[in-house]
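Protein in question filed below.

…
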Amino acid sequence: MSNLESQPAEADLPVETGTAPCAELLEGRDVPLGRYTVVRRSLPNKSRRTVGAWCFLDHFGPEDITGGPGMRVPPHPHIGLQTVTWLLNGEVRHRDSLGSDQIVRPGQLNIMTAGRGIAHSENSPTERPPLLHGLQLWIALPDGARHGGPAFQHLADLPTATANGVRITVAVGELAGLTSPAVVHSPLVGADLHLAAGAATTLAVNPGFEHAVVVTEGTASIEGVDVSPGSLLYLGADRDTLHLTATAEARLFLLGGEPFEEELVMWWNFVARSHEEIVEARTAWMAPDASRFAPVPGGEDPLPAPGLPTTRLLPRPRYRAG
């Protein structure tokens, strides 16, 4: 998915000085995604840049698209990241410059690695369910992987388990003895948790990771904090357990990973390390340079890049001291 803001801001965001256990509720913001969809963006946030290598989180829907076009995201470029598409309802058709053409459905995972450069589009199929609801996330690639070639992986079957009224599906990484086959380049976890009404459980988590939770349906109590859709609960690091309860049915997505220490320049759909890298990628997209961003099948007009800001883009850490 693209960041379609016409004037994307440089992400100069975090204010915290550490990753000790906490329970910090971060409010998302509404962002238009093209002409037809509005998403709730939780990362980057005004007080948090990354959770592990997770650097971007949009929650879209639930939306009845019976009378409309649904998702319409034209071809656009990415560098330096992986995209993760996770659906709760509906279908999305992914096409990319590698020639991939894949519909993703609930319980399945699309994960695309941009590396040095890739372009893709995401659209609702002509024949599709009436409801669209899901998450789009980005993972910042570490320096050793971000200059590599692009790749795409579709996983139709992911590991799941149910205990204490909680159904766990591991999309990325490892949790509760379940390991996803998704290829990532940093120590990470991403898991869908479906809590039955009255469920209460203590989940073992990696104490070397920082974690956060976004609730996608209902309301859940996480470490004693009630969380509803529209917010992200940042939990810090140095935890080995996570306490979850739900009086009514609820669903949430747990994300976490080793704190990502590399300083990032995030602008539009690019994750880089310097102003020059952003300029180079934008120039290649607008040229266009097919050796870096090959055409996306489907005949859609590509999305033009917005103008660069008048000030120099600077690398930023995951938080700002003070």
